Amino acid sequence: MPPQAMALAPSPEAEAFYAGALRTLVACGLPFLVGGTYALCAYTGLQRPTKDMDILCKAGDFPRILAHFQAAGAEVEIEDERWIGKVRQDEHFFDLIFASANGTMPVNDAWFEHAVQTEVLGVPVLLASPTDMIWSKAFIQLRHRFDGPDIMHVILRQHAAIDWRRLLANMEPYWELLLAHLVNFRWIYPSERDVVPRWLMDELMERLRTQLDLPPSQRRICRGPLLSRFDYQVDAQEWGFGGLSEVEE
Does one domain contain both 123 and 161? Predict the structure, then answer.
C-alpha cells in the first residue's frame, strides 16, 4: 500500500470540500478513482500544492456522478463533453475525468482492476495505479505544462509496482513516445537505469532500428496535437501538415 497522499490543499476550507466530496462519492456507490496530485504524492512521497482534486470515472458513470452532486445542491458543469466536467461549491471544485483530452486514454474496467487501495483525507479510496498514472501523463507536453518530471518520479519510486507489459500494450500506437520518456529516465537517473526492464528497452530499440531502414510517411503528418492542441495549430494552419483525423477519400 502506498503512503497516504500528501498533496497540500490551498486552504482548510478546500481540504474540507475535497474530503466531503470523497465521502459523497463513496456514499453514492458509483466506482471512482483518485488521480492527479493526490495520487502522485501518494506514490512518490512528494508534498505538492494542488488547486483541485482529480476524480476519474468511466464514461457511463460521468453523467450519473454529476447528477448525484447536482441533486445534492452542488454546481456542476461539463467543461468538455469528450473528457471532463467539474463539481463546484463556492470557489472550490474537483475535476471529474473519464478520458484524456486527446482521446487516447479512456478510463475503463482495467483501471479499476489495477487500482490501489489507500486513504485520502481520511476516506478509504482507490488510487489510479502507477501504470495508469504514467500513461495518463505521457501526453501532457504543453508549452506551459510538462508532466515529464512526474513520470520520472513515479518510475523511480514505483518501478516494482508498474505493469510494464500493460503499459506497453496501452501505448502500442505511441511506442516512440514511451521510448522517449524511458530514455529521459536513463539520462536523468544513470545509476537507476536497470529499474526499467531490459526486455522493454530491447523491444523498443529494435523497433527503432527497424524503422530507421524504412521510408518516411508519404503524408505530412504532425502528431503534435496529441501532446498539445494549442502549440501545434500552426503546423496544420500554415505549414501544410495533415491533421490526425483527416482521411483521404
Answer: no
Q: How does residue 245 score in pLDDT terms, banded at 50, 70 and 90?
A: low
Across the strands, what pairs with 88?
A: 75, 93
Q: Which amino acid is at 20?
A: G
Number of domains in the chain: 2
Q: Which of 204, 218, 205 is nearest to 167 (CA)?
A: 204
Q: Are residues 148 and 114 in the same domain?
A: no
The answer, yes or no, to whether residue 29 has pLDDT greater than 80, is yes
Which contacts of 17-24 are long-range, i.e. CB under 8 A and separated by 24 or more positions?
A: 17/89, 17/92, 17/94, 18/53, 18/92, 18/94, 18/121, 19/121, 19/122, 19/123, 21/53, 21/55, 21/69, 21/87, 21/94, 22/120, 22/121, 22/123, 22/125, 23/123, 24/68, 24/69, 24/72
Domain extent at residue 181: 129-213
Final residue of a domain: which of 88, 108, 128? 128
Q: Please check the confidence at residue 14 and state whether its pLDDT lies above 60.
A: yes
